[in-house]
Structure formats: C-alpha cells, structure tokens
Amino acid sequence: MLLWLSGSLPWKQFEDSPAKVFELKKSFVENAAIEVPKLLKSKKEASLIIKFYKFVGEMEYGELIDFPNLLESL
Fold first, then answer.
1. Contact, 23 vs 37, CB < 8 A?
2. Counting runs of H as helices and runs of E as strands, what totals does the chain give?
3. Rounded Cα distance, 36 and 25, in Å
4. How many CB atoms are located within 10 Å of the residue 35 CB?
5. Alpha-carbon 24 to chain mean position
6. Domain-by-domain residue ranges, the chain?
7. Which residue of 15, 36, 58, 69 is surrounded by the most CB atoms within 10 Å?
8. Three-class SS string for 36-71?
9. 53 near 29, Cβ under 8 Å?
10. φ, ψ dihedrals at 61, nearest 5°
11. How would residue 19 be classed by pLDDT, with cut points 50, 70 and 90?
C-alpha cells in the first residue's frame, strides 16, 4: 500500500541485503506514527496506514483478519 500511495519505499535501495530490509521494515512499522507521514503528503492517507499497522500489529501470528472490524477501525 505504501508503494502505491507514495511511489517509493525507504528500504528499496537495500533490496540486495535481506537482513537490512528486515531491520528497516521492522523499525518503520514500530515507528509508523513518525515514519508514515514522512512518505505520505496526505494526512488522511497517513492516518489510515498508521491505523492499519496498529490493527495488524495487535494480531497474533496465523490469526485470520477480521475484515469487518478492520474496516470499522479505519
């Protein structure tokens, strides 16, 4: 979604280093409230992406997405 909305990803230049990409993605998600607005000019889009990251971040591994609840939270 970030790529669609922003046209770029902060870890794109490190694609040849999976460990670096993993660390950058992990840090990005943990700090989504700060990092997402840096990529997206629209506050509305940034807010939705931050809420999405929070929602999925609270899920357990293997848990099925409750789409009605997700849509309601957005």
1. no
2. 5, 0
3. 12
4. 20
5. 12
6. 2-73
7. 36
8. HHHHCCCHHHHHHHHHHHHHHHCCCCCCCCCHHHHH
9. yes
10. -60, 130
11. very high
